[in-house]
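Project outcomes to date are best conveyed with an example. Our students and postdoctoral researchers have been running inverse folding experiments weekly, and each run begins with a structure described purely in tokens. The record below, which covers 75 residues, was selected by the lab manager from last quarter's runs and is presented without edits.
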């Protein structure tokens, strides 16, 4: 599978988002909100939106994984 720079960026942002969700789930501690002034601050909302957009982008990785397996089977 050919890794694109956007894939690496999206995966990194998703990992940060997942860690934040883990902190919320286990400890009721929202690191993004603490660092950037609450959940309703503009910066926090932008960061939450970026994590969401990266999640949507990551859906495209599934189709490329499937295409890669199909190409391997043909060879």
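After processing, the design step wrote out the following sequence:
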């Amino acid at each position: 599978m050919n890794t694109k720079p956007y894939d690496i960026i999206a995966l990194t942002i998703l990992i940060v988002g997942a860690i934040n969700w883990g902190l919320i789930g286990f400890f009721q501690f929202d690191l993004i909100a603490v660092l950037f002034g609450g959940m309703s601050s503009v910066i926090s909302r932008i960061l939450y939106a970026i994590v969401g957009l990266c999640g949507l982008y990551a859906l495209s990785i599934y189709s490329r994984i499937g295409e890669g397996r199909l190409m391997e089977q043909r060879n």
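The chain has one domain: 5-74. The longest helix spans residues 42-74. The training component of this project remains on track.
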